[in-house]
Design goal:
heterodimer, A: mainly alpha, B: 6 helices, 0% strand
Chain lengths: 74, 176
């Protein structure tokens, strides 16, 4: 007889967020697809920003130091 | 350690207030940031830079820390935990990144405000300062991603979460 206790988890009646979503409704033990896809997208974006920064498209240094002392004197 | 339902609702109210307030304050900041980026009038630029620093220092930074703190309290005080679910973990990481970038950016914002407060700074100098638009718009996108994650709570447990859940079930059902 197939064990069914994993498919019938104990209820958590009050998770404190009122969204009707229970904390233990995971279905698989592996990393979910949305995490993998998001990770790939973020990786590509980070790579793109690095390439753009290295090629100078995004500009060089930024912050107060880019203006240099005395550059904006009266 | 799980909170009582009353305490949990109180903490959730605080967390929602601070988190949504953070997004709203950044929206107000972006309006000033756009004025700083596109403005030509020296008085407008001066006012925008000064207001940007006030909003960033006295509204956005405190809201960021309050949101981070109440988020941790909500995670630790409920069965969601901090490291058990991918959406909680990713939300925490993104919040920490957003807060760190915000703190780094306050240096630039303060510099702009100092220059704007200096009556000897000319209109040309003010126009040359630029803006923090890339960071403020990027930060808003990150906050919106966190907001969506918190609303939809996409499924998926970490290895740690599965182990903890298994341990709890064995404790509840030692015969299973």
């Amino acid at each position: 007889v197939e064990k069914t206790h994993m498919a019938d988890p104990p209820p958590y009646p009050d998770t404190g967020d009122d969204t009707g979503v229970e904390p233990d409704r995971g279905s698989t033990t592996g990393m979910p697809r949305w995490v993998k896809v998001s990770g790939i997208i973020v990786g590509v974006l980070v790579l793109l920003v690095i390439v753009l920064a290295l090629t100078g498209v995004l500009g060089g240094q930024h912050g107060p130091e880019q203006f240099g002392p005395g550059q904006h004197g009266p | 350690m799980t909170m009582t339902p009353g305490l949990r609702r109180f903490a959730l109210s605080g967390h929602l207030t601070f988190s949504v307030g953070w997004v709203g304050a950044v929206a107000a900041y972006i309006a000033l940031d756009v004025a700083a980026a596109a403005g030509q009038d020296a008085q407008t630029l001066r006012a925008a830079y000064l207001a940007m620093e006030l909003i960033a220092s006295y509204v956005i930074v405190p809201l960021a820390f309050a949101s981070l703190l109440t988020g941790l309290v909500m995670s630790l005080g409920t069965r969601w935990g901090v490291f058990r679910h991918y959406w909680v973990l990713i939300s925490l990481v993104l919040t920490v990144i957003a807060t760190v970038v915000l703190l780094m950016e306050t240096g630039t914002i303060s510099y702009f405000a100092d220059r704007a407060a200096d009556p000897t700074t000319s209109g040309d100098d003010l126009r040359a300062l630029g803006s923090t638009l890339v960071h403020s718009v990027g930060g808003t996108l990150v906050l919106l991603v966190i907001l969506v994650l918190n609303m939809y709570k996409p499924q998926g447990m970490t290895r740690y979460g599965w182990r903890k859940q298994h341990e709890q079930r064995r404790a509840l059902q030692p015969w299973a």
